[in-house]
């Protein structure tokens, strides 16, 4: 349809050289052309947040950005969250506090929370609720997600 | 949370971590969108943008000319494929109303699939779909199920069925009643809306003549059977595979037009065919649910006993009848009496088609609707009789002495027989825990100070564990790893963990050594899947019986090898040893398995392998019960409702994993809050859906969902299952709308104000202004 452009996405520290249509969403490029399917699509119009990733360390809805706009940028997805076999504190807190059921929204919540806790390690409970209410979950009723993120926040702060 | 430490993990009742979680938190899940096959095609559906009309012509030429498009199908390309049949088998009385995979002659709702485009990539398929021109001659649109029925294909009316249930003499009872109380209430059209949209991949393996479908969920075996019937294939040559499933809630996993299309296309185009739904499609194409209007009256005696219940309801089925047939009508009329005695009862359901998205089951189908209606009525009766709403309910609850309590009602082919349970006793516990009397005083004081605050209650009984049967297979390998093969399904509820815990109990093994298979029709002949809160009850019991058989076989073999009696042995952490001597002679389960291989000389006359297969047959469903209590604050300026406090009491019979059960209750409540306050599929007069994005269809965020207090009791294990298990999947949602509506009435001081869900700010503002508030 249109001329493809060669771009480089640095996903979780690894360079992916891909030839993309300018209209391909970043989510589609990451999933279908870089093989990283941990990032999920829930609505493709920027409301549910399931596709949230970090671009240059800021949370981004990857369904609302084109792949080509991320050329040369540092992308972090859920696949890069653990340190080898060692879970990120958020991943561990999600497991220990039953903060997921079907797990479809989980990567989006994990990356949203990672971005916000790195930027604001001291974030208050209320402010955290404001941020987390930008993503949707249909299984858990949110209580355990809130609990898990607060526990991870406290742990991450104590460790820093 | 009772997390076990320093011992084998995962016995019954332990809130252990889920086996499901590690891949899901690391991005390693395999949801249907994550699965790809070499050379696959992508399917895009062109849907009707008319709610009702005659298909005059379909022009696919421009779409076919797009480079990368492989085929464009209308119904003529698949005129040998029958309409999608009912899950429970053919039903001649309803056959006319079934949906073809692609619309034939007529379209009956906006979203009705008309054309399928197959292309090399999904972007091309979507581009080409835009070029298909469908000419429709509009026909009159029927939006409301309580409007007069219209013609259906010149062969019937849109009143597809009348489902009636009841017992006793209605006319005499109402004629002699001390008082008759009538209400007219509506439940809106809303549905499950899982976070993952639907998807399906068809793949035909020509070498083996096997057709495969990936993306199955909920009822893979039942869908295999239906597909075999529709496509005339043997069960050995058609397999369905469930991967990770991004939420089910009753709506995902039924057999839909798109599932049939990818299967047929894979065979005819000789390439794998992948279809992934987008959210807009999902909100107009996947099953809707719930929409009912009830005109219901109670005959009341002087002491507050409700001696008769008479209900007439209109169920809005939408454009076609899908796989469920009239199940929702059956469950609504079969469960409406709930936990109360109601000696005389009648419910007549007008099961009617309209020109909206077809409807079917959504978590707690029939009970969610009927509980809202019944509890609204109980509140109205309390007002009419000038009785306290709790006292009125108490007066009518079925007592423990009357249990098991049978009724001449049918729920999915099972005559209702309440499991023993103490409804009033649990109510006492719940009211005590929440401090009901004190709460009333505090709320009254706040109301006196001008706040609109109030509390409400909703009581319910649930149904779970629909039979009649399920089986399971267990295999222990020579290393002592255990595989449990089930025909169950995992829709996010923790099925693998629950089954592993149940098997671990009898096999004396850490639950983490157990691999649980589900949703693979090539691994086991039969399966009930995951619906109607039946997985843990039925499949779990089958797993338990199988584990007991394998245990017996292991101990029998070990007894011979250790030269002792099987009775004297037990299994701890995968090691068989004498009960009274844990450190004495022992054998691992792996060693015992090795002694039982076909070539083993130690095996004797025993059947080869350390394995088993057992069945569980249940006589009646189980009927867990409970109540919800909501405390709300209404903002008269905005019409907004804030849930200040929420409480759920539920008797589960026996908890396998309390953490997961609470997760089910809290998650169910979130959906209940959505249905009570926010979620609604609205339509224009011409049948255009007005909620096709998440900007219009409002799923609650964490700002709207309360963190409920939960009283989970195990006071009455089910008498229907050896482990006493009752289901947990639906109780969180069942009572929500009733409790919230009751609390809103109380808060605004207008009894019976809420007659319709969702109680949106617009509706509530209207109620307040009509009453000068």
What keyword list fits this structure?
heterodimer, A: 160 residues, alpha+beta, Ubiquitin-like (UB roll), DNA polymerase, domain 1, 2 domains, five-stranded mixed β-sheet, 5 strands, 16% strand, B: 773 residues, Aldehyde Oxidoreductase, domain 4, Aldehyde Oxidoreductase, domain 3, seven-stranded mixed β-sheet, globular, disordered N terminus
In short:
The complex is a heterodimer of chains A (160) and B (773). With 160 residues, chain A is of the alpha+beta class.
Which secondary structure elements does this structure contain, and how are they paired or packed?
The complex is a heterodimer of chains A (160) and B (773).
Chain A: E1 5-11, E2 14-20, H1 26-33, E3 52-55, E4 58-61, E5 74-76, H2 89-96, H3 106-119, H4 125-132, H5 143-159
Parallel strand pairs in A: 1-5
Antiparallel strand pairs in A: 1-2, 3-4, 3-5
Helix pairs in contact in A: 2-5
Chain B: H1 21-25, E1 41-47, E2 53-59, H2 61-64, E3 69-73, E4 106-107, E5 113-119, H3 122-130, E6 133-138, E7 151-152, E8 156-157, E9 159-167, H4 170-175, E10 179-187, E11 199-205, E12 210-214, H5 220-231, E13 238-241, H6 257-269, E14 273-276, H7 279-285, E15 292-300, E16 306-318, H8 327-335, E17 344-353, H9 367-384, H10 389-396, E18 405-411, E19 414-418, H11 423-434, H12 436-448, E20 452-461, E21 469-476, E22 482-486, H13 495-507, E23 514-517, H14 535-562, E24 569-572, E25 575-578, E26 581-588, H15 589-595, E27 610-617, E28 625-635, E29 640-651, H16 658-678, E30 709-713, H17 731-734, H18 736-748, H19 761-770
Parallel strand pairs in B: 1-14, 12-13, 16-17, 22-23, 29-30
Antiparallel strand pairs in B: 1-5, 2-4, 2-6, 3-5, 7-8, 9-17, 10-15, 11-12, 11-14, 15-16, 18-19, 20-28, 21-22, 21-27, 24-25, 25-26, 28-29
